[in-house]
Amino acid sequence: MSHKYSTKLFYKYYLDWIHLYKDNAVRPVTLNKYYLVQRKLKELAPNLHMNELNRQSYQKILNLYAERHEKTTTLDFHHHLKASLFDAVDDGLLKADPTRRAIIKGCSPSNKKLKYLNLFDLQTLLRSLNLREELNWDWFFYLIAKTGLRFAEALALTPEDFDFEKQSIIINKSWNYKEKHGHFQPTKNESSNRTVMVDLQLMQQFQVMINNKELNQPIFFSKEQRIYNSTLNQKLASLCKNNDIPVISIHGLRHTHASLLLYEGVSIASVAKRLGHNNTMTTQETYIHIIRELENKDNDRILHHLSQLK
């Protein structure tokens, strides 16, 4: 007797897969991405059944999506679908994996803002900050530049997260600033729970400023305050413009931190761990331009070394 493979519509299978594996298992912001992919899938392939799925029909979906999206966005779309199709093969709903050796295309990238600052521009920015004796948002920018924390992770910091003896900051939560009544929430993923080493001077400065604050309360604002990412990004943008340096976002400070560590020769594995990335692949994909630049320098070093061997 031949195997009966699924004849369900692909976008309906994917919706059922989200309900089964992702509902109440991932953060709302991540779940929204899955539902966004599902809606796009329905738009691109409304009549494609699971038993019609093969490498060609799947590639056509990716190609259609790539017509209006950049390569990195298309890759993200592919990754979301691929996970569900792996399970479909494992569960006997598909004969073979249609995502195997898929080609990722994309339209020409738009002119994007610079993601990170060079060392000189970062130093110019940090010197311009108004670092008073009490915590303010300039201290917030300073801390992210020194640690590479995500925006929501830095917002969630409380005095008990600072380990002055071990000269480190413990990251075990983030702040949900997107809702009217903000609150603590889990970090982005398990890898985001980490300990970040910082320099002694920074620890001493914060020790003084958070000494009289409540142990389990955010250090940069009161819990009743509504925090807007856009407002703080505008404040940072003004600082950049006033100092005649490229305008970057708060997330750009995180990119700057990671980029400078890579340029200093810190390993990808160590940078990935410090940033709270799930794996080094995420780090490699994010900073591929820097890694390639460093590889070229390494090749020069290798050739120089080999020329000395006689």
Automatic annotation (TrEMBL):
Keywords: DNA recombination, DNA-binding
Gene Ontology molecular functions: DNA binding
PROSITE patterns in the record: TYR_RECOMBINASE
Gene3D superfamilies per UniProt: 1.10.150.130, Intergrase catalytic core (1.10.443.10)
Residue intervals of the Tyr recombinase domain: 112-301
Keyword DNA damage: no
GO BP field: DNA integration; DNA recombination
Record's keyword annotation contains DNA-binding: yes
Pfam families, A to Z: Phage_integrase (PF00589)
Family: Belongs to the 'phage' integrase family.
Name this protein carries in UniProt: Phage integrase
